[in-house]
Automatic annotation (TrEMBL), chain A:
This is Phosphate transport system permease protein. GO terms for biological process: phosphate ion transport. It comes from Phyllobacterium bourgognense. CDD domains: TM_PBP2. InterPro entries: MetI-like (IPR000515), MetI-like_sf (IPR035906), Phosphate_PstC (IPR011864), PstC_N (IPR022182). It holds the Pfam family BPD_transp_1. GO terms for molecular function: phosphate transmembrane transporter activity. It is a multi-pass membrane protein.
From TrEMBL, chain B:
It comes from Phyllobacterium bourgognense. This is Phosphate transport system permease protein PstA. Its main location: membrane. It is a multi-pass membrane protein. InterPro entries: DUF3333, MetI-like, MetI-like_sf, Phosphate_PstA. It is found in: Cell inner membrane; Cell membrane.
């Protein structure tokens, strides 16, 4: 019995329960006693009482079955020795479950006289559309057969229990249908529970982010010491072949961090003046009609996916800067196509709308009385802005700039395409540098194995990135909160 | 303020001379300041225009593909030399179809088939994709064998570029990818009307391929569609439920404070971190399939959730308290008040926020790279569990290809993506204009 089948049956029972429950409630109305809940609440209560425990049980059972199957399969695998062919236990386990999945597709007759060696089994399964890794072993076949037997047993027992639970729940719910039964309150309590669970997902996500990266990072630090990671100045991870472990790469964070901050700095250097002046003009000078055209146009820049900016940098800006530098110096292109400058400028363009719309909101929020006071004393508009409005808006603007900077640091696609992959440590903005995000992408695309430092380092990088941006965001919120009251 | 302070040393005469308060200088500063603002806006708009121009000028040609019309003789001697097709179905699948196209082309151009070097040059005029095209034709209808069919065949990528004028034909032929002979043939076919540009349906239907002319967005479009559906089905209910709890039910407590700060922070977490989360939790821990749009959709859901929650809470907050008081006053329970009265009134705002969140998710690339969506997927995925790619990931993969024809395709794919985004955002704006209500 498949999980899907069981779910359908449970839902059918629960739906039947809904209709019977509602019917019962209707039939009990009409006496002298005023009914507490509307009939459909009784229906829903029966539905929930029947479906909820059964579905929860199915979920728990399915998870537990998976763990149990793996445990029992691992117990049966021969002990690993130095000359075990297959690199890791998880790989072995994957092969066993692959064979088991393949055996499932065989007909009964084929299963009755199963070949005993893997070499014979492989073409048979391949003809059923299950491709297996070539280094499967003969001993895996009985384990896979056992696996399938256990699966069948677990799913039939689980299915029966779930259906019994659903029936019991329905009977329980139906027995409670009564004129004064507080069905609405019961249903509403469950709704509230669901709402709380939904908002818990936000917390779960954060916990998931931190824990998942933390565990991998700790594993990483078991093979590479934290001090060489945080203070190392050479990045040379050296993709080692699986299992060889001989050559140990160097994982120095410093060049990546330097590149990240440098590119973000160049981007901010470009985006802050442009964005800020655009915001000032739109908030203080522009007429309504100009504003209603220009503001959405600038915000289009924020809606363009970063991959498009990356492509723009790769195809247009990078070659343009290279050719420009070649023309200026008469032949020698001192700006490389992939450089800090290219990535910084394009990222700056991406950040303009963030700076401008955030600062625009903050500048418009400065009370008009401050402006009126300053203008009334005879200062010009620009003097009012520079000496009154901007100081009043400063904390908000600093907060906005911090948020923008954290976005620049976490930006991936632009730098992947425009900044280059060489982990250099230099101060020439015309050369290529690389960033934390680029290296995360580099280390984790392609074939990977989960226990080499070459891949685990990506999680250490991710955790570093997460904490840098988190600190900047919290600091930004703190600044905004602390100074906000002053002018209101 | 010192500039404008009264100058106590001003001479007091009967008709006081105008005090010099530097008006000229200050007005000049005023104009300069204003100019800075205009320049800033101009720079922003300039880059917007430059970006759009760069994409559209590179990409609009991708929607047309050069094809050549051939009268192909489906010769049974070549398709099935041993006449075994009745018994062995593999014969039709493995037959040498490109030879047929080459012979047809040679006949058309009057090149003798014995001229080996010329034939080799000729073979590069049309795409290798002709093999699949003719195979489909013949397998679907074996009775065509022996007849002559008029078929539009894709040209090779280089010929396509040359035909569109993207290859500089003035340089020496050894330094470009098409030879003079090929150009001559091309012009001849063009003159006869046998070679022309036709609408590129392949761009929307083909999967991954190493040849530019037969690679398309088919797989990516399906993958993105699945992911958007998953994001919509997961993030809208969860986001709305979470917002309702936080906005309508939750009392101010330590816990709700933590949730609030959390959501604001999640909205600012770099998207690539969500990719790491998906890789570690969904793929490594729960053993979900790599490259599947299900995992991609779930990762994007987690990423979009904060956006939707923030938008929904703003929409709920905009519903005036009087509505709530009235509902409660006529005897509705709190849940009834929320679901029957507040939520319907907040729906347009929620919808707008959701569409904007979806548009954001559609353009997101970085997290998808980490969960293995950078895959060479040639066959269209059937379920969300099958390997697939996504629109922005396809753009990323094509951007890394060197050939000129891929630059064109990349820009074409970007145009498709931008059109989707524009439609979504305009829908959101229209919804907001149409249903926005001020109390």
């Amino acid at each position: 019995m498949s999980i899907f089948m069981v779910l359908v049956i449970v839902m059918a029972i629960a739906t039947a329960g809904y209709f019977i429950g509602r019917q019962r409630a209707v039939s009990k109305e009409g006496g002298n006693v005023k009914p507490h809940s509307l009939p459909h609440y009784h229906g829903w209560w029966v539905f929930l009482a029947s479906a909820l425990p059964a579905v929860l049980f199915i979920a728990v059972w399915a998870a537990a079955t998976g763990v149990y199957l793996e445990r029992s399969a691992i117990a049966e695998l021969p002990t690993r020795t130095a000359d075990t062919v297959i690199a890791s236990q998880s790989l072995e386990l994957g092969m066993v479950s692959g064979i088991a999945r393949g055996l499932d597709r065989l007909s009964d007759a084929e299963r009755a006289n199963l070949p005993q060696t893997f070499a014979e089994l492989q073409p048979l399964l391949a003809s059923k559309g299950v491709a297996l890794a070539t280094e499967g072993q003969d001993y895996m076949i009985p384990i896979a057969v056992e696996w399938n037997r256990n699966t069948a047993w677990a799913s039939s027992v689980g299915g029966i229990v779930a259906i019994v639970l659903a029936l019991a729940g329905a009977v329980f719910g139906l027995s409670g249908v009564n004129v004064r039964a507080r069905a609405r309150n019961n249903v509403e309590r469950i709704i509230l529970g669901a709402l709380i669970a939904a908002s818990g997902i936000a917390i779960l996500t954060t916990i998931g982010i931190i824990l998942s990266m933390l565990f991998q990072t700790i594993t990483f630090f078991q093979s590479v010491s934290p001090s060489t990671f945080f203070f190392g100045t050479v990045w040379d991870p050296r993709f080692a072949a699986a299992g060889s472990g001989g050559s140990q790469g160097q994982f120095g964070l410093v060049p990546l961090l330097a590149g990240t901050l440098y590119i973000a700095f160049v981007a901010m250097l470009f985006a802050v003046p442009v964005g800020l002046f655009a915001a000032i003009y739109m908030a203080e000078y522009a007429s309504r009609s100009v504003r209603s055209v220009v503001k959405p146009l600038l915000e289009v820049l924020a809606g363009i996916p970063t991959i498009v900016y990356g492509f723009f940098a790769l195809v247009t800006v990078g070659p343009f800067l290279r050719d420009l530098s070649a023309a200026l110096s008469g032949g020698y292109a001192f700006i490389q196509a992939q450089s800090v400058l290219t990535a910084g400028i394009v990222m700056g363009v991406m950040l303009i709308p963030f700076v401008s719309s955030l600062s625009d909101d903050i500048i418009t929020a400065v009370p008009g009385s401050l402006r009126d006071g300053s203008l009334g004393l005879g200062s010009t508009k620009s003097e009012t802005i520079r000496r009154v409005v901007l100081p009043a808006a400063l904390p908000g603007i600093v907060g906005a700039l911090l948020l923008t900077a954290s976005r620049a640091i976490g930006e991936t696609m632009i730098v992947v395409l425009a900044a280059g992959v060489a982990a250099n440590l230099n101060i020439n903005p015309f050369e290529a540098m690389t960033t934390i995000t680029v290296k995360i992408v580099n280390q984790l695309t392609g074939d990977l194995e989960f226990n080499s430092p070459q891949t685990l380092v990506a999680f250490a990088l991710g955790l570093t990135l997460f904490f840098i941006t988190l600190a900047m965001n919290i600091f930004a919120l703190y600044i905004v909160r602390k100074y906000r009251e002053q002018y209101e | 303020m010192t500039d404008i302070a009264l100058n106590p040393a001003a001479p007091a005469s009967a008709r006081p001379a105008r005090r010099d308060i530097g008006l000229k200088r200050r007005y000049a500063a005023e104009r300069r300041f204003k100019l800075y603002g205009i320049t800033a806006i101009a720079i922003g708009l300039f880059f917007l225009v430059a970006l759009m121009y760069s994409v559209f000028s590179n990409g609009y040609t991708a929607f047309w593909q050069t094809e050549v019309n051939l009268a192909i003789n489906l010769d049974p001697k070549i398709i099935d030399p041993d006449n075994k097709r009745a018994t062995d179905p593999n014969v039709l699948l493995t037959a040498n179809y490109p030879i047929l196209a080459r012979n047809a082309l040679a006949e058309k151009l009057g090149v003798p088939t014995t001229n080996k070097p010329a034939m080799r040059e000729l073979g590069k005029l049309f795409s290798e994709g002709v093999r699949g095209q003719l195979r489909e034709l013949v397998v679907a209808n074996p009775s065509l064998i022996g007849t002559t069919q008029s078929v539009w065949v894709l040209t090779g990528a280089d010929i396509d570029s040359a035909f569109k004028g993207q290859i500089d034909l003035t340089v020496d032929q050894t330094r470009r990818k098409v030879s003079d002979q090929q150009v001559e043939w091309m012009n001849k076919l063009k003159g006869e009307g046998a070679m022309s540009q036709r609408f590129n349906t392949g761009l929307f239907t083909y999967g991954a391929s190493s040849r530019p002319e037969t690679s398309g967005l088919g797989v990516a479009l399906i993958g993105s569609l699945y992911m958007m559906l998953i994001v919509l089905c997961l993030s809208l209910p969860i986001g709305v439920a979470a917002s309702i709890y936080l906005e309508e039910y939750a009392k101010k407590s330590r816990l709700t404070d933590i949730i609030e700060v959390n959501i604001n922070n999640l909205a600012a977490v770099p998207s690539i971190v969500f990719g790491l989360l998906g890789l570690a939790v969904f793929i490594n821990f729960f053993h979900m399939p790599r490259s599947a749009s299900l995992v991609g959709g779930m990762v994007l859901t987690l990423m979009t959730l904060p956006t939707i929650i923030i938008a929904t809470r703003a929409a709920l907050r905009a519903v005036p308290p009087s509505i709530r008081a009235a509902a409660l006053g006529v005897g509705a329970s709190k849940t009834q008040m929320v679901f029957h009265h507040v939520l319907p009134l907040a729906a347009p705002g929620i919808l707008t926020g959701t569409i904007i969140g979806l548009a954001h998710a559609l353009g997101e690339t970085a997290p998808l790279l980490l969960i293995g969506m950078v895959a060479f997927v040639a066959n269209a995925p059937v379920t969300p569990l099958d390997p697939s790619t996504a629109l922005p990931v396809q753009i990323y993969m094509w951007a890394n290809e060197a050939e000129r024809a891929f630059v064109e395709r990349t820009s074409g794919a970007i145009i498709v993506l931008l059109i989707f985004l524009a439609v979504m955002n305009i829908t959101a704006i229209i919804l907001r204009r149409r249903f926005e209500r001020r109390w």
